[in-house]
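Obj.: predict assembly geometry.
Materials: sequence records (below).
Method: joint structure prediction, all chains together.
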Amino acid sequence: MAGTGTAHLHAEGEALLRVEDLVVEFPVGRTGLTVNAVSGISFDVLPGETLGLVGESGCGKSTTGKAIMQLPRPTSGSIVFEGQELRSLRGEGIRALRTNIQMIFQDPISSLNPRRKVRNIVMEPLNIWGVGTPEERGRRVDEILEAVGIDPERAASSRPFQFSGGQCQRISIARALVLDPKLIICDEPVSALDVSVQAQVLNLLEDLKARFGLTLVFIAHDLAVVKNISDRVAVMYLGKMCEVATSDDLYARPAHPYSRVLIDSIPVPDPDAPRSAVRIEGEVPSPVLPPSGCRFRTRCPYAQEQCAAEEPQLRDVGGGHFVACHFPLTLR
Amino acid sequence: MSEMDTRPDEGTLLDVRNLKTHFATARGVVRAVDGVSFTLERGAALGIVGESGSGKTVLARSIMGLLPPRGVHREGEVFFAGTDLRRLDAKQMRRYWGKQMSMIFQDPMTSLNPLMTIGNQIAEPLRVHLGSDKAEARAVALRLLTDVGIPEPEKRLDQYPHELSGGMRQRAMIAIALACGPTLLFADEPTTALDVTVQAQILELIATQRRDRNMSVILVTHDLGVVAGHTDSIIVMYAGQIVESAPTRSLFRSMRHPYTEALMRSIPQLDQPSHTRLLAIGGRPPDLINPPEGCRFAPRCPYAEERCLQEAPTHQSDTPGHSFACWNPVGSPTWAARQHSTTGSAAT
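Observations (raw structure tokens):
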């Protein structure tokens, strides 16, 4: 199956992470069928950039994040991190890779070992890699805990359940940071948090990014959150890439009908805001038997015959704004 | 459905006065809802907004009488169409559930019976409350599934919840809640588990059904965006109490309570450029076993003074229908004097 093209990628060597034609498939029991979770997507992330991956459940955004970490290994495609092809790595090579690429998950409480003291949880990666002397490790852990706003003394004597959800997410972030990674994949890091706490964690991520020179892949379903934190945003639908653009440009003039619907569906906290004009009916089709051509065509108000016959490729509609649609909204 | 005709179409449907709901736990008494009063007109939609632990869900359940039988202390009055529900026991309340008031929950997967077909789950309240026979109930169930916009309704009647998508399950939940033609529908975070495009569809469905049936709706949510477009009035809860209450337009035009203002400022907005610094609320909500003595928001409030920490503010109002419990509301001199020191220096 053809992917959606690579026209939007930067020149080789420029990006910190470059993903090309990534395919991830899972077998459905013994039926011989496959779930096409990710079907040939390409994207790259520049050093110091935050790339947002956005889409609804089942679009493959989390699978993409995990595939970068080789958890599980992708079915095909190429993932190049700092010039190194990750898919060729085995055993120790993969473990070493994970010091450079770390991940933060959605549910902060279940991603921390409930039986261990928080300071030890954050220390663990340093112990595994035998970084420095025990004193140096202790200093490093305390420095990182303070950077994320957790009192090191309390962390030394408390377990995760003694902290709130927002604090547990800070602890997860500290654990991800302690090995000084270059890239952090954040998989829905704030969606389990209350809005006031969500803002604290988003601000913290921005601060840490500047302080430690991080590059982020930020996966989320909340478009307003993604817009706030990202430099560029990639919109996914049913395992395909629909649109890639700078964050402000994407929201100001979405070119893909699906991006438009997504943006219009967000409830705006203003009673006088116009209610969305474009509506889509129905729900996402099954990834076991995805539609031919453009996968959004079954729900797209503008779909025509060409959309079923031919898969649209990502193309530039001006100013680094790429869209995979035969009839982009900006060219109407 | 005959009593529908005798019901007045206007006037107050629900009148809650100083309702308290406390739970006895091993650590002490949790004051989940602590003195809440509001009224709801027939056919109107009310939004209850608050974060986790604000008491919004307990409030809804307390009004409906859906509380555990032991370890709960409930006081105050809940008048529903003139009857004080608090005086009724569970057996008497059964006459109200389904027929007068019903509820849709956040998680449609765990709220549906996995071993019963969708058709039978919709038919059950019809047969129990309205005494419909099997064929009649099935016909009504089919009509309800059509009303809530489920594709191929005939086929769905004989399917089980796991065969439906999340959005369809929530539609089925709504069909069950609407089955006996309730006058009041509680929707407790009805779209939180759903994708944003499906959320828009479900909110639209609830709005249409409300208009068609002249039904009152209480929409419980943490999302100010959800209530903005789908309610007539809003109450904002914090730590078991109402901090602000207003008609929806009035609330969004001028938020008076610092908590409401802070909540609004902490949400990322689509019309802001990316990397706009969010104004987070520092700290976290108080422990409801030992809430602060004065204003419960004071420890996190950027405008708090000595008085706020000692004396609980009473509700005041300067626009009809818009009340707030604060000594230094948004727009007051103290608030204005502190503006420069809070804006831009977001707490972390």
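Conclusions so far: The mean pLDDT of chain A is 92.
To do: check interface contacts against the pulldown list.
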